[in-house]
């Protein structure tokens, strides 16, 4: 599996997590007001479009996703997007309610409760001072129930907080489970072997004709472990 594809799938997952937030949670009641024009992303100095626009489904919610490489630095962009969200009439949750993102990157989310749309921007700094941006729009009005019947891999019996992200050519499962890393790996070594998957040369990598599957996990809170499974189609 190419690194770019893995990054794209993980990014879809991040936007999916933001999409799960209730679009009216914590929004102050301003009474009956005329809806503001639909939010438009601010204009930036684009160096290149990293990926073409795409639609993924995260937790049953369609998310429009696109990415770009821009000249602006991340410090200026954080304030610029915060101002753009507020000027566009969106509700911006307080900092403590915003999702956190590692590796010096930043993530900011705003809500349009009238249209039930969540806007998320992930900003990833580059060594030269420029920034890679990932922009997502989650339309909660078009949400549909998640179904486990079509999962590409089984879940451990105690799995909780399951999120499914579907994109063109890839699918992602993420969940928490009260198991150790060795127990997670043992469960999937056995379950995937029974389903015809073969272990690859890299840790957590499995393959079978026409597809690859990658398993990653890390410790979480209160004895839980965060687990991510990414299924990617590949040429035969």
Rg over alpha carbons: 19 Å
Task: Summarize the main sheet.
Answer: 11 strands, antiparallel
Shape type: globular
Total domains, how many?
2
What structural class should be given to the helix and strand makeup? alpha+beta
Global mean pLDDT: 82
β-strand percent reads 35-45%
Please characterize this protein's 3D structure.
- With 236 residues, the protein is α+β, with helices and mostly antiparallel strands.
- The protein has two domains: 3-18 and 43-142, no CATH class; 160-233, Ribosomal Protein S8, Chain: A, domain 1.
- The chain is built from three helices and eleven strands; from the N terminus they run H-E-E-H-E-E-E-E-E-H-E-E-E-E.
- The chain has an eleven-stranded antiparallel β-sheet with strand order 3-4-5-2-1-6-7-11-10-9-8.
- Strand 10 (211-219) and strand 11 (225-233) form a beta hairpin.
- The protein is globular and about 55 Å long.
- Keywords: Signal.
- Residues 215-236 are annotated as: Disordered.
- Residues 1-21 form the signal peptide.
